[in-house]
Write a sequence for this structure.
């Protein structure tokens, strides 16, 4: 009896207004997933030695602003981390990152990459 | 950078093409009395001799040299400057030592030994102000030897640092502004 009622309910959902709502929700989910995965392909975290003050952070941000693939850089002085996202289809090599940190006057301890890596190393 | 106190007024304008060196001009006015006021206008270069980048700290050793003009009362002469600056800082602690020697041929000489110790009690993220508490000790050896102590508050916000302090002996206010472009 319960099974019959469930199958009737499911049939109703696929009809009329319910069906359109489900399709709309699915389309929104798919679009959001495509946008998020397309905009942020790779996350890069750089551990930096010697980065202790606000002026250090400003100097590092200035160096990274010269790399056109990087739109925004976050500096966390407590974690000694410089982090940024690379959009899909772009790549910045470890050597370029090390040069930016070195030119700002600091040393790279470690570079960690997560997400899609388009053979940038 | 600009520094303003009852006995010392200094304006420095430096350009730093790389992290290892900078050059610019420095104007320093030492106020004592009308006959003994000293003014130095110096073209100066600063060089980072060494930087030690440690996991949670940074230490630096700089040297600065410059040439320019000195005035003492109504006498003018050529002036030379040589300074050695060392500092060590972590996210919460700061210390520095400056040895500054200015020499003019009309006995407008000036020596300054400046030590600074500071702490950041409540570290805040970069987009918020960070307030440091500093103690500055100035030992000046010219006509008379003087040691002055100044408690200072230093406010860091983005690319600007503002300092406000009080000379304990003189009771005079001192302030400075550092702006990194």
């Amino acid at each position: 009896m319960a099974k019959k009622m469930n199958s009737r309910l499911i049939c109703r959902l696929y009809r009329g207004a319910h069906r359109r709502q489900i399709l709309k929700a699915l389309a929104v989910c798919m679009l959001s997933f495509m946008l998020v995965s397309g905009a942020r392909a790779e996350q890069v975290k750089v551990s930096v030695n010697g980065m202790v003050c606000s002026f250090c952070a400003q100097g590092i941000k200035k160096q990274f602003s010269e790399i056109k693939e990087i739109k925004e850089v976050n500096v966390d002085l407590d974690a000694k981390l410089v982090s940024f996202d690379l959009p899909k289809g772009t790549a910045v090599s470890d050597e370029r990152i090390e040069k930016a940190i070195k030119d700002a006057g600091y040393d790279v301890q470690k570079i960690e990459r997560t997400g899609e890596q388009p053979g940038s190393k | 950078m600009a520094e303003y106190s009852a006995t010392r007024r200094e304006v420095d304008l430096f350009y730093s093409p790389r992290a290892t060196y900078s050059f610019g001009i420095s104007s320093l006015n030492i106020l004592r009395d009308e006959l003994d006021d000293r003014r130095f206008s110096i073209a100066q270069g600063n060089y980072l001799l060494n930087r030690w980048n440690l996991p949670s700290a940074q230490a630096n050793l700089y040297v600065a040299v410059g040439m320019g003009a000195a005035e003492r009362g109504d006498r003018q002469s050529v002036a030379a400057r040589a300074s050695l600056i060392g500092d060590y800082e972590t996210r919460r602690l700061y210390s520095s030592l400056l040895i500054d020697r200015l020499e003019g041929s009309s006995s407008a000489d000036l020596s300054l030994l400046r030590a600074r110790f500071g702490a950041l009690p409540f570290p805040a993220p970069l987009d918020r102000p960070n307030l440091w508490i500093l103690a500055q000790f100035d030992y000046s050896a010219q006509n008379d030897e003087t040691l002055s102590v100044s408690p200072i508050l230093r406010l860091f916000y983005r690319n600007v640092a503002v300092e406000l302090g009080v000379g304990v002996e003189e009771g005079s206010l001192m302030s400075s502004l550092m702006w990194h472009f």
